[in-house]
Design a protein that fits this description.
With 338 residues, the chain is α/β, with parallel strands linked by helices. The chain is built from 12 helices and 13 strands. A hairpin with a 5-residue loop joins strand 3 and strand 4. The relative contact order is 0.15.
């Protein structure tokens, strides 16, 4: 696996926008031989560099899937660690080819030089409390201090919610996620509020005793979290988008990393097309016929990625919920590969 040094922490002042006449992102990736994928440290369930020097977690596998599709090998990824505050500027300045972390698709971001190629997880902002306090509902936080990372969509969501519900919540903002959690663990606030995925993952990574903390059932927002690219390269956005769709469609069709080879003998045309046996459908944006086969074989379908990082058999222990396939009662679906 490629790393930018031990970590590559992007400093925006050292970046400059890519020239207008630069080659396509696909050309640049193939010339260098690897995909540069922006990530944020969010704990081992989502994104972290483990003791073996390997980036692991839910978000990292989507980077590997794009690398498998484009370069032929899921290992051809350079993970670029960026902070939440500079992630979009770093992407616009071409410090990375795509961003895979807890980035909410909003209108303001969508028209600011960014394109959300795919929604990898439908989340919502939640609250975590200290279990012995006996808090079981958001109403019990009326007039209380709530820690919140002062970046992304969380602070405004919290202010809007508190105002609409007349709860008088006092937000205590922190410049970093780690700072907000440490203050919460030090009992400087009654609760902490941000995306539920972040709450669950960082609780496992940083809490002195994770069992002492619980998440309230309420969700105060809808957070469609997605893969982000620059909006000046339509073909690259299509590649990232359809790589994700291939993972979802593979789950719908029953194709896994374990049976992909056997499924190539299937008589189902779309299965054969996704796995590179039938006529290629991605040649218009530069991918060879076996791109989908490599994605599934080397990384897995969406369910495999989810189950490795977040599923019921992991420490995170989260059921699929609304991130299940539509046929299973969720909202996840993919257009047909044809």
């Amino acid at each position: 696996m490629r790393l930018a040094g031990a970590f590559l922490l992007v400093v925006i002042t050292a970046l400059s926008p890519a020239p207008a006449n630069a080659g396509t992102t696909l050309d640049e990736v193939r010339a260098r031989g690897f995909v540069r994928c922006g990530v944020t440290e969010l704990g081992e369930s989502l994104t972290t560099l483990n003791a073996s020097g390997r980036w692991v977690g839910f978000y990292t596998d989507f980077c590997r899937a794009v690398a498998a599709a484009v370069t032929g090998d899921a290992k051809n990824v350079e993970f670029v660690m960026v902070s939440t505050g500079v992630r979009f500027d770093a992407l616009r300045a071409s410090a990375m080819d795509l961003l895979s972390e807890a980035s909410t698709w909003t209108m303001t971001r969508d028209v600011a030089g960014l394109e959300f190629a795919a929604v990898t997880f439908h989340d919502g902002q939640a609250f975590m409390v200290y279990a012995p306090d006996g808090i079981t509902s958001v109403d019990q936080l009326k007039g209380k201090t709530v820690c919140v990372p002062d970046l992304g969509t969380s602070p405004q969501n919290l202010r809007d919610f508190a105002r609409e519900k007349n709860l008088g919540i006092v937000p205590l903002p922190f410049a970093t996620i780690e700072g907000a959690f440490q203050a919460f663990f030090d009992r400087q606030c009654k609760a902490i509020s941000t995306d539920s995925l972040i709450l669950g993952s960082v609780r496992l990574s940083l809490a002195p005793d994770p069992a002492q903390y619980r998440m309230l059932d309420a969700r105060i927002s809808h957070e469609p979290l997605g893969l982000v690219v620059r909006d000046n390269d339509v073909a690259w956005a299509d590649i990232v988008r359809w790589t994700f769709f291939a993972m979802v469609r593979a789950e719908e069709l029953g194709i896994t990393s374990q049976n992909a080879d056997d499924m190539r003998r299937s008589g189902v045309i779309e299965v054969r097309r996704l796995l590179g046996i039938e006529e290629p459908v991605a040649k218009e944006f530069g991918l060879d016929p076996e791109w989908g086969y490599r994605v599934v074989k080397q990384v897995g379908n969406y369910a495999e990625v989810y189950d490795r990082a977040l599923g019921p058999k992991t420490a995170f222990g989260m059921a699929r919920g609304r991130n299940a396939l539509v046929k299973n009662g969720g909202v996840l679906w993919a257009p047909p590969i044809r």
